[in-house]
Write a structure and sequence with these properties.
Elements (H helix, E strand, L loop, with lengths): L16 E5 L11 E3 L10 E4 L2 E2 L8 E4 L2 E4 L9 E6 L2
Antiparallel strand pairs: 1-7, 2-6, 3-4, 3-7, 5-6
Length: 88
């Protein structure tokens, strides 16, 4: 079995990494729209719902547009949402 690897030359300043941010928005079992604090680098937003990483994209768990995270289904009351991303 061959193992392939590649080196990625990406430098990220610690100040640019946002981890475990709680997005603003009402978790009431109805609301699907939540807001993060900073504009994210395109494609870097990851969302955990109750400790489970969610899948981004059309027809999946959530979509991101600018600072707005829109879930396909409203998180249940008492849910915990955490966002992780690189800010621009």
């Amino acid at each position: 079995m061959a193992v392939h690897s590649r080196e990625v030359n990406t430098t990220v300043a610690v100040g640019d990494l946002i981890a475990n941010e709680i997005p603003t928005g009402v978790i009431d079992g109805i609301n699907t729209v939540f807001t993060i604090s900073h504009d994210p680098v395109l494609g870097t937003v990851q969302v955990d719902l109750n400790g489970i990483r969610q899948s981004p994209g059309s027809g999946k768990d959530y979509n991101v547009s600018g600072k707005i995270i829109t879930f396909s289904k409203a998180p249940r009351i008492g849910s915990e949402i955490l966002a992780h991303y690189l800010k621009t």
